[in-house]
Amino acid sequence: MILKALRKNRLLTINYYEDGLLQTCQGRVHNLNLLDQTLFLKDEKQNIFSIRLSGIQDIQ
Q1: Which CATH number characterizes residue 7's domain?
Q2: Is 41 exposed, middle or buried (0-12, 13-18, 19+ CB in 10 A)?
Q3: Residues 6+ apart with CB under 8 A from 26
Q4: Which InterPro entries did the record assign (predicted)?
Q5: Out of 22, 28, 29, 33, which residue is the most buried by the measure of CB atoms under 10 Å away?
Q6: Which has more pLDDT, 21 or 3?
């Protein structure tokens, strides 16, 4: 279900846990590395964020 939401080329809001804290990030999928189970998200300012797939709580 998570991978299905990531296929769409649209603006996503992802809630995820990092270091025990719930974080929110908004952007488009830049890259998906299934070997490292990492999602790279690019925001509107062209910053790239690395998110572990296991930490994702919700995708909107």
Answers
A1: 2.30.30.520
A2: buried
A3: 11, 12, 13, 14, 43, 44
A4: YolD
A5: 29
A6: 21
Q: Which domain holds residue 31?
A: 1-57
User: Which of these, 34, 35, 28, lies nearest to 11 by C-alpha position?
Assistant: 28
- Rounded to whole angstroms, how far apart are CA atoms 43 and 41? 7
Token pair of 22 as six digits: 């719930």
Question: Where would I find the beta strands (DSSP E) of 2-59?
Answer: 12-18, 21-33, 38-42, 48-52, 56-59
CA atoms lying within 13 Å on the CB side of residue 39: 25
Structural domain tally of the chain?
Answer: 1
